[in-house]
Amino acid sequence: MGDREIIDLSSDDESENEKVIPTAVKQEPDLVFDVKQEKSSNKGELANRNGPRIHSVRAAVDDDSDVSYASAICAAPLTRQFWKAGTYDDAPASKKFTLQNVKNYLHVHPMFLHSNATSHKWAFGAIAELLDNAVDEIQNGATFVLVDKTSNPKDGSPALLIQDDGGGMDPEAMRHCMSFGFSDKKSKLAIGQYGNGFKTSSMRLGADVIVFSRHMSNGILTQSIGLLSYTFLVQEKLDRIVVPMVNYGFNSSTGSLEILNGKEHFVTNLSLILRWSPYSSEEELLGQFSDVGSHGTKVIIYNLWLNDDGNLELDFATDPEDIRIAGDVRKIDTIPAWREANEKHIAHRFRFSLRVYMSILYLQIPESFHMFLRGIIVQPHNIADDLKYIEFILYKPQVGGTVEATVVTTVGFLKEAPRVIMHGFNVYHKNRLILPFWQVVNYIDSRGRGVVGILQADFVEPTHNKQDFEKTSLFQKLEVRLKEMTWEYWDVHCRLLGYREKYPVPKAKQGELNRKSYLVDAKAANENAELRKRTMRNASEQGSNNKRKIYEQVDLHNSKKHAKEENVKGVGISQNMQVIPAPAEQVLDQETLTLLDENQKLQTKCLESEKIQEELNLKVTDLRSKIEAAREQQNLLLAQLQLLDVKDE
């Protein structure tokens, strides 16, 4: 077999003055398996879109048979455990490639795929990255994202499917997606920004990923298929990352697909995809577009990683309506009577239930957009609805005397407190949850137990894995302030839960805390809320123009109605709470402050009276029980006395 050519897509180091174009490189004869010699004829370059005959491949081989692999030869990597898969032996039998006439070429070794993915310690954090890509497509008309289990047709093993109906990717965008450091997300509202999330997340979940994307632009439809296979790179001992891709364009005049970018690389890339992907023929590959529609992207991650016990890290079996992390259900250290309530709480379950985690992952979701997990819609959940005795606290972080932002933090006790001992702040960035139930304090003698907060902190930057924030001075100041909020709130309100004050608050300080808590800058809070409502409304209007049938197993009429009822309307604010907007020029004079202070005192007295009333009701119930017991004792004694009188006679 003669030399073949393959495209190396790992080079993304482009100088400002010279564009690096990936050129064809010579491939050793044993790298492409079972690919027959190409003909020089250029007849039959079209592939029928819907029919079973795939002319595009047949034009490139000697006979009329398809390039296909019927056997299950996309073998799994040598080790199936992610944290042990970083060992890479590329000497001395490495397959080496060279690029011609390219300067400043960045050599990316396959081992980087694994080391880069280790930034995700938590599997759900990797799935969230892929969901972010779908949510960012709302501005391009996306109406849904679905997450489900699928299977590898070659060996029947489970695989993870993530699909959306966003704008899709043209061939160049697909190449950027598969490469490192590219990001075309210019919108300030976009969650993704580093151009690294797809690689880190997909490689964290499984050894291999194949992507199908269809894109429509200016009446031109393209569809691309790309394969990022760690298994292929390891088993072939390649010394750099090679990503085979095939691209098609739809010819409207003939109703067929044409091979794009020339057929000289097509057969080589197709043969690699068919050998190392779950699909054995070009017809099977193109069949994956059957449910994509006119635009959208489908990601299939296979050869999923195993945990230390040898089981799949993602558990598809325990709950047919959920995806769980196998073996990650931890016991809660509390009194037996409270254990069940804590184990069922969302603050505990999100760690191992993807459905729960997805429900709180985004602060707001447009009514036109839906998330599906295992065929069932995920209802958004507003954590603020789980709180009682809610307060809104204004925070203005500063650097060098300059105010960086105005943040309204929602703080309260969990409704199940004190039985539920969870606590912490849920910190969002650009609508995306970064730190769920972040425990800024370690409570001593119950101080801080049950206190939960919600805020959106766009003034600090998240880390690349979007599971933490960069440890800047602003973030450190935020952490200190949230600790203060927790203790201040606890010291003021702990009596309402029956706790004894361990750190009494002075009267002067009490008044100051009340003003801090209740005299929120209402104008800023409502401007913040109105801005996000307008943003979501615009995204919803764009998405509504591109609605289509999204999942046949779901009754969309009912699901949309329910989603509308559950849709989050505030900025981390409970739907049953309202912040009354103040006039733009309103100034709080001393009389207003006094009235508000009196109002707060009356509210506190009212709560205390209600608590006293509850205690009195309990005492009344207890006394009635005692009276009833005393009456029964009296009747018993009278009966015994009557028996004694009868004996005396």
Automatic annotation (TrEMBL):
Protein's cellular compartments: Nucleus
Domain of life: Eukaryota
Xref: InterPro entries: HATPase_C_sf, MORC_ATPase, Morc_S5
One Gene Ontology MF term: ATP binding
GO annotations of cellular component type: nucleus
Transmembrane regions listed in the UniProt entry: none
Main location: nucleus
Keyword Isomerase among UniProt keywords: no
GO aspect biological process, one term: chromatin organization
One Pfam family named in its UniProt record: HATPase_c_3
SUPFAM superfamilies tied to this protein: ATPase domain of HSP90 chaperone/DNA topoisomerase II/histidine kinase
Cofactor: Mn(2+)
Family statement drawn from the similarity comment of this UniProt entry: Belongs to the MORC ATPase protein family.
Name this protein carries in UniProt: Protein MICRORCHIDIA 6
Organism (species): Arachis duranensis
